[in-house]
Write a structure and sequence with these properties.
Layout (H helix, E strand, L loop, with lengths): L1 H8 L6 H16 L3 E7 L8 E2 L14 E8 L3 H8 L2 E3 L11 E3 L9 H7 L3 E9 L2 E10 L12 H24 L1
């Protein structure tokens, strides 16, 4: 049903940000997620401090795997404002298109701990969106708590849905390029 809604509601002339905003709203509603973030690559040199470990990077130096929030859904305004101003260094694990990241209460609290803390998502699914072999976005969605029966741990079907949405976003972006 979610994919059918995307097909109907996202027109050919919709810009990237509108597409990402619509998708994040629908994911939160349809999958009962607390928060969804769409992160996009930062192009050019980094002029402010990078969140998480900077792995020896220097300010003003162009860095791979640095993203910023393009869309935040489900965040309080004060958190949204802070996150929108951050540069986020993402781990390579988050960029693998064949292996979306799933983190539940069963995972080590240290796994992607800085990333989870920064986004305020202790339980999450992340899937990259690729276009022409380049990451154009990372779709991150999740829950702030796990509590049965209303907030069960994320599972394989949630991962498949997020991965499908990620592939659908890539296809839409390809379609938009052809229309330009």
């Amino acid at each position: 049903k979610l994919m059918a809604e995307f097909a109907v509601n996202l027109g050919k002339s919709t810009d990237y940000k509108s597409v990402f905003l619509s998708v994040s709203r629908r994911i939160n509603a349809a999958l009962y997620m607390s928060r969804t973030a769409v992160l996009t690559p930062v192009s050019g040199p980094i002029s402010m401090s990078v969140s998480m470990s900077d792995q020896g990077a220097k300010l003003g130096q162009a860095m791979p795997n640095v993203f910023s929030a393009a869309v935040l859904q489900g965040y309080p305004p004060n958190e949204e404002k802070i996150l929108m101003e951050q540069h986020i260094l993402v781990e390579p694990e988050l960029l693998d298109p064949s292996n979306p990241v799933l983190i539940t209460g069963a995972d080590s609290p240290n796994r992607l701990a800085s990333f989870r803390k920064l986004l305020g998502l202790p339980y999450l699914i992340a899937a990259p969106v690729y276009l022409d072999n380049n990451v154009v976005a990372i779709l991150v969605t999740g829950r702030t708590m796990e509590q049965l029966p209303f907030m069960p741990p994320l599972g394989a079907s949630d991962v498949e849905t997020v991965q499908t949405v990620s592939a659908y976003l890539a296809a839409m972006l390809v379609g938009q390029r052809f229309m330009e």
